[in-house]
Specification:
The chain is α/β, with parallel strands linked by helices. The protein has eleven helices and 13 strands. Helix 9 (299-308) runs parallel beside helix 11. The chain starts with 16 loop residues before the first strand and ends in a 27-residue tail after the last helix.
Length: 374
């Protein structure tokens, strides 16, 4: 509250009681904000030759940060991140520099050579407001002149070792020591040799009834387009449409995303018309994943499939598949939606729509399928 920011957290139950303690009626509201992806940095060390520094935040007699100064310093640190002076950072905590720098180094398995002035106490003491940062080699002067309280800790190296005074520890040894404690609880290795996945290319067109096809035959679309257009339908609760747009654009496709608005009948009518137009102008429909209509088995797909059963949308989808030799794809719950859309369009039988459910006998079948898109 001293920072004037919304609390950071997640959902928790407020309906329980414990002995003579009852949870009072409470409203907890969380706010969501956005930021420019170019201004976001990750914590792993980036490059040998960069410098490690610690930003020291002023504390009061109770070891709490002086919040007015903390806000001022954090703003300066944020500004240095935007200027690309700071390329990685980690908020310190109970185990201070020792924990933070280890986790930062594990990412790319880079080493660190600590400055001779750093003591064992500096390395291990708790620090609940300081920031450990990796500064690009050419930006150290600007950081030192920023008005922040800065301690030089050392230099990032490509040796794969932590060098502290006369002690040298290999990064692999540190990583193994960190991971082995929970290895028996959450094993990351197995002695069993995994079966090599089949590398078959499955031709589903024979099952779909488009045209005769032999097994393992690579099918090439009849209607070739230099830059295929991809339609990504966005429903309330779905996500990853931005990632899909980025991936398809990078691959050379044109992408159109359209949100299905369902606040009122007029919105739904307009959305249906927009979807018909988008499908008519596209060669690919790509269903994003997400939690639309819940995340139970077949959850998101129920909403997606109900929309694509609209006669106008279903007719245009059928033309896309049968007349224009188009493609339907889906990811996560969107895959279930793509499957149900496909069965509706091909079989034209809404009652026999297919779907997915839980595997109550705890037996799963997993198969790798190679799909080539030309």
């Amino acid at each position: 509250m001293k920072l004037g920011l919304a609390s950071i957290g997640g959902k928790d139950s407020m309906s329980g009681s414990f002995n003579d303690i009852d949870v009072p009626p409470t409203l907890v509201s969380f706010a969501v904000d956005t930021g420019n992806a170019n201004d976001i940095i990750s914590p792993e060390l980036k490059k040998a030759g960069n410098v490690l520094v610690k930003f020291n935040i002023e504390e009061n007699e109770y070891r709490l940060p002086v919040f007015e100064k903390l806000i001022e310093d954090y703003n300066k640190i944020t500004n240095l991140i935007h200027k690309k002076c700071i390329v990685s950072a980690y908020a310190l905590g109970r185990y201070g520099v020792s924990e933070a720098v280890s986790k930062m180094a594990f990412g790319n398995k880079l080493g660190v050579k600590f400055d001779e002035s750093i003591t064992e106490r500096d390395y291990f003491k708790p620090d609940f407001s300081g920031i450990l940062a990796e500064v690009s080699a050419g930006s150290l002067d600007e950081v030192m002149k920023s008005g922040l309280n800065v301690t030089l800790l050392g230099e990032v190296t490509d040796s794969g070792k932590f060098q502290f005074a006369n002690t040298s520890i290999d990064i692999e040894e540190m990583l193994n020591s960190w991971q082995e404690r929970l290895e028996k609880v959450y094993p990351t290795k197995t002695e069993e040799k995994a079966a090599k996945p089949e590398e078959n290319i499955y031709d589903v067109r024979k099952e779909a009834g488009f045209a005769p096809a032999s097994e393992n035959k690579l099918y090439v679309a009849k209607n070739k387009v230099a830059r295929p257009k991809v339609f990504i339908p966005v429903f309330p609760g779905t996500n990853c449409e931005y990632d899909l747009t980025k991936a398809f654009t990078k691959a050379g496709a044109q992408v159109e995303t359209v949100v299905f608005k369902n606040l009122n009948a007029e919105n739904i009518k307009d959305s249906v018309e927009e979807y018909v137009r988008a499908i008519k102008n596209s060669q690919i429909i790509m269903f994003p994943g997400g939690f639309s209509a819940g995340d139970e088995p077949d959850g998101s797909a129920k909403f997606i499939a109900s929309v694509f059963r609209n006669p106008q949308i279903a007719e245009e989808t059928n033309r896309l598949l049968k007349e224009r030799d188009g493609l339907i794809l889906g990811i996560c719950n969107g895959f279930s939606g793509s499957y149900q859309t496909w069965t509706c369009a091909i079989r034209r039988n809404h009652r026999d729509k297919g779907g997915f459910s839980n595997s109550y006998n705890q037996q799963d079948r997993q198969t790798y399928i190679s799909v080539c898109i030309h």
